[in-house]
Design goal:
single chain; alpha/beta; Glutaredoxin; five-stranded mixed beta sheet; two-stranded antiparallel sheet; about 35% helix
């Protein structure tokens, strides 16, 4: 009896608005990169954006971040860009990690820990690493763990 009630409630909720409404527009934001230059997500309209939330203290993040770079570089000539949002306590810590590992600093955003956390909240990120793919029109087409992001997930949006 309880299962039947739960099924009926589920069906009613689906009919009353639980249906998939399609992709969501990515929230707009502006944040300084590690070089002190303001970067807006809107600047990349027309490109496919891989947006990654990460931190140097997060061991899974330090393993998946290089993999995202490889994926981005494979599609760079087709307009794929990578933006990272660092959730480190200081910009210097993130910068040191990137430089030590041969990565650029201009595509990693920080501003301040408070500002980075605000962007994290805008995207509904609970834990990191968390990656999004934003299509050329600004819609979120992928949200999940970075290792789940494959060529098959990106290619439809090229």
């Amino acid at each position: 009896m309880i299962v039947a009630i739960a099924v009926v409630v589920g069906v009613v909720m689906y009919i009353l608005g639980g249906a998939d409404t399609g992709p969501e527009l990515a929230p707009a934001f502006t944040l300084e990169n590690l070089d002190g230059v303001e970067v807006s997500l809107g600047e990349f309209r027309g490109s496919v954006v891989i947006l990654d939330f990460w931190a140097t203290w997060c061991k899974p993040c330090t393993k998946t971040f290089p993999e995202l770079h490889v994926l981005q570089q494979a599609y760079e000539d087709q307009g794929v860009v990578l933006l990272g949002i660092s959730l480190d306590k200081s910009a210097q810590r993130a910068r040191d990690h990137l430089v030590e590992n041969g990565f650029a600093t201009d595509n990693v955003l920080w501003g301040s820990l408070e500002e980075a956390r605000e962007i994290k909240e805008l995207f509904g990120v609970g834990g990191i690493p968390r990656t999004f793919v934003i299509d050329r029109a600004g819609y979120i087409r992928f949200s999940g763990y970075p290792t789940r992001l494959t060529s098959d997930e990106i290619e439809p949006w090229l």
